[in-house]
Amino acid sequence: MTKSFEKNIDDLKFQIELGVSETISANITKDINKANSLETNSSLEHDSNELSEIKTLNDLQSFIENYDECELSHTARSTVFCDGNVDAEIMLIGEAPGNQEDIEGKPFVGKSGQLLDKILETININRTNCYISNIIPWRPPGNRNPTAEEISMCLPFIKKHIELINPKVLLLVGSISSKSILNKNLGITKLRGEWHIYKDGEIEIPALPIFHPAYLLRRPNNKSYVMRDILLFKRKIQDMKIL
Predict the structure, then answer these.
(1) Which of 13, 14, 94, 134 is most open to solvent, judged by the fewest CB atoms within 10 Å of its CB?
(2) What is the pLDDT of residues 184-215, one digit of tens each?
């Protein structure tokens, strides 16, 4: 009985961390909505004029690495900027770096990243033909969820990132990534399985949300949902003549 109770508590903590449960994710949704409402002021705080003038990935990376307004930049070991092919037409956007990502300075290199690689390999996608980044470039202490303020500070970064890469299609990995990029208040279980449109000014890009692989490591019986989504993604890129 004690083990069962401890497991329930452990699962609850994990679901809060990933925002997977529709009920539990209400607070995360509120934070992301707050982040989107704060974005305009946040952009002004970290010199939106300077950010808008950035024309290259190197300049964007330098700007982020030297940005010190977000407390996460002081507590993290690395600025996790990107991995993959800068000329790719497919862009993956995750949530925030974990411990291994913080150590290596690359997104999705821990256990969940290894699982993501295996999932993508089933449709012949790998780091030579896709580009990977995160909503948050710094690891939150203890792998906690980023706050609304942290998301609002970093949203302009990832939007600029998308603008510079100019992908034809987006794969949004996890609840925080999906809700932030799409500006939606639905849970990941309702967002996944359907195509959405990312919009920013004149930019419009089809985007597909999927469960975070860290969730699948704890709930392997849900891998079938991700595989359905990945096949949906495959059909889309085939129709768009990508790869």
Answers:
(1) 13
(2) 999 899 999 999 999 999 999 999 999 999 99
Separation in Å, CA 76 to CA 51, 80, 101, 154, 209: 22, 10, 10, 15, 27
Bridge partners of residue 200, in order along the sequence? 203
Q: What confidence category does residue 23 fall into, taking pLDDT thresholds of 50, 70 and 90? A: very low
47: confidence class by pLDDT, cuts 50, 70, 90: low
Domain membership of residue 66 as a residue range: 2-239
Q: For the chain, how many structural domains are there in total?
A: 1
Amino acid, single-letter form, for residue 45: E
Closest CA to 79 of 134, 143, 19, 132: 134
- Between CA 96 and CA 83 the distance in angstroms is 14
Q: What is the pLDDT of residue 48?
A: 76
Report whether 21 contacts 187 (CB < 8 A).
yes
Per-residue pLDDT tens over the stretch 69-83 = 999 999 999 999 999
Contact 81, 157 (CB under 8 A): no
Written as six digits, the tokens of 177 are 């990534």
Q: Where are the beta strands (DSSP E) in the chain?
A: 83-84, 90-94, 131-134, 169-173, 196-200, 203-210
CATH number at residue 83: 3.40.470.10
- In the structure encoding, which two tokens stand for residue 207, read together? 């985007």
What is the end-to-end Cα distance of the chain in Å, rounded?
52
